[in-house]
């Protein structure tokens, strides 16, 4: 894992935070959330050879859980942290390659890449939802008490 990729994920996440007009005091934590999520994703795919969909699911779950913690710490909505933090995992390049293959009449490759793109997008959504459900379940049991 290169330092350049970590820095890029940090600043890209912060850039989307600026684009989404989040409060200034949350820009550094938002950047860290995106960087940590990317670090988990790359660590799982490169070091442990876990497939892309599973690694994306685990990384998005981690991002959403960290976002829940930071939202309570900063007394802000979870979406302030999770939406910008999930940006490094979004399969935009793969979606582009899917359409490029389709335009070049490579339909089988287009279908293959499109299927992977949809599975990655689904795993991002499932990771975010699963984290929310787990956090709400434990906060109702007073394991993670909500701050007032």
Automatic annotation (TrEMBL):
Annotated localization: Cell membrane
InterPro entries found in the cross-reference section: ThrE_2, ThrE_Dicarb/AminoAcid_Exp
Residue ranges of domain Threonine/Serine exporter ThrE in the record: 7-134
Pfam family, one: ThrE_2
GO CC annotations on file: plasma membrane
Residues spanning the membrane: 6-22, 27-44, 50-71, 78-96, 116-138
GO BP annotations, alphabetical order: succinate transport
Keywords noted in UniProt: Cell inner membrane, Cell membrane, Membrane, Transmembrane, Transmembrane helix
Membrane topology designation: Multi-pass membrane protein
Family the UniProt entry places it in: Belongs to the ThrE exporter (TC 2.A.79) family.
Protein name as it appears in the record: Threonine/Serine exporter ThrE domain-containing protein
Organism per entry: Desulfitobacterium dichloroeliminans (strain LMG P-21439 / DCA1)
Lineage of origin: Bacteria, Bacillati, Bacillota, Clostridia, Eubacteriales
């Amino acid at each position: 894992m290169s330092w350049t990729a970590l820095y890029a994920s940090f600043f890209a996440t912060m850039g989307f935070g600026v684009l989404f007009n989040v409060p200034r005091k949350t820009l550094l934590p938002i950047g860290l959330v995106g960087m940590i999520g990317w670090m988990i994703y790359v660590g799982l795919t490169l070091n442990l050879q876990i497939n892309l969909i599973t690694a994306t699911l685990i990384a998005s779950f981690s991002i959403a859980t960290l976002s829940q913690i930071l939202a309570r710490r900063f007394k802000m909505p979870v979406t302030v942290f999770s939406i910008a933090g999930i940006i490094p995992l979004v399969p935009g390049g793969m979606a582009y390659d899917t359409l490029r293959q389709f335009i070049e009449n490579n339909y089988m490759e287009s279908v293959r890449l499109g299927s992977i793109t949809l599975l990655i997008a689904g795993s991002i959504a499932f990771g975010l939802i699963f984290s929310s459900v787990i956090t709400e379940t434990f906060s109702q049991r007073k394991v993670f008490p909500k701050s007032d």
